[in-house]
């Protein structure tokens, strides 16, 4: 399998029941997503050798690089307060970040294109429970050539109450992958547009 693309990063706030999600949203346009699973590494020694070992999932890290992190999206992902811009343009859109803000648990998903035996397919992934941390805020001056600067946000991946941390499904079309992610993230067609 060769991976050749990444699209449609979405997220949805996890409800208090730990199983369902509030209305989700499209985060931005995807540049890169990297999921790293951290596994337990415990060995039981008996009779001078390894008798048992545990390599089970402990937690994970999601690093998500996108083209833009809009003010309202940034606030939703990190539990900050967002105030809309005034209609007359006199007051700008404002994010207020407080030390007492708590990042919400979010379900996060995306899909990528792959090729297997010269045929395309689409693999969608849904991480059930992610908590993002404040991203680094770097801005460089313009030099002789333009260098695009894009945000990367990182989060910790947790297992759900039922022990499940990730679901992934393979589809023949992009439309099917998007529909599956919309269902997972509780996104209606109008919200996705």
Break the fold down into its secondary structure elements and pairings:
Blueprint lengths: L1 E2 L3 E7 L11 E2 L3 E10 L2 E5 L2 E6 L2 E10 L4 H8 L2 E3 L10 E3 L9 E11 L2 E14 L19 E7 L7 E6 L2 H11 L4 H4 L1
Antiparallel strand pairs: 1-10, 2-3, 2-10, 4-7, 5-6, 7-12, 8-9, 10-11, 11-12, 11-13
Structure at a glance:
With 193 residues, the chain is mainly beta. The chain has helices at 71-78, 174-184, 189-192, and strands at 2-3, 7-13, 25-26, 30-39, 42-46, 49-54, 57-66, 81-83, 94-96, 106-116, 119-132, 152-158, 166-171.
What keywords describe this structure?
single chain; 193 residues; globular; two-stranded antiparallel sheet; nine-stranded antiparallel sheet; mainly beta
Order of helices and strands: EEEEEEEHEEEEEEHH
What characteristic shape results from the CA principal axes? globular
Number of separate strands: 13
Helix content: 10-25%
Which structural class is indicated by helix and strand composition? Answer: mainly beta
Q: Quick one: biggest sheet?
A: 9 strands, antiparallel
Number of helices: 3
On the 0-100 scale, what is the average pLDDT? 90
> Which stretches are low in confidence, meaning pLDDT under 50 for 5 or more residues running?
none
N-to-C span: 31 Å
**Radius of gyration based on Cα positions:** 20 Å
Strand content: 35-45%
């Amino acid at each position: 399998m060769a991976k050749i693309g990444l699209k449609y990063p979405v997220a949805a706030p996890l409800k208090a029941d730990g199983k369902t999600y509030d209305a989700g949203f499209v985060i931005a346009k995807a540049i890169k997503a990297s999921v790293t699973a951290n596994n337990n590494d415990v060995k039981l020694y008996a009779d001078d050798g390894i008798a048992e070992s545990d390599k089970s999932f402990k937690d994970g890290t999601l690093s998500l690089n996108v083209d833009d992190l809009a003010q309202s999206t940034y606030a939703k992902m990190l539990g900050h307060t967002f105030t809309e811009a005034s209609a007359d343009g006199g007051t700008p859109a404002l994010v207020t970040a407080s030390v007492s803000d708590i990042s919400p648990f979010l379900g996060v998903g995306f899909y990528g294109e792959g090729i297997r035996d010269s045929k395309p397919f689409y693999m969608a992934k849904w991480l059930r429970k992610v908590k993002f941390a404040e991203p680094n805020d770097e801005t460089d001056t313009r030099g002789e050539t333009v260098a695009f600067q894009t945000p990367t946000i990182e989060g910790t991946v947790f297992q759900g109450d039922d022990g499940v941390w990730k679901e992934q499904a393979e589809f023949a079309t992009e439309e099917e992958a998007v529909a599956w992610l919309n269902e997972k993230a509780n996104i209606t067609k109008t919200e996705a547009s």
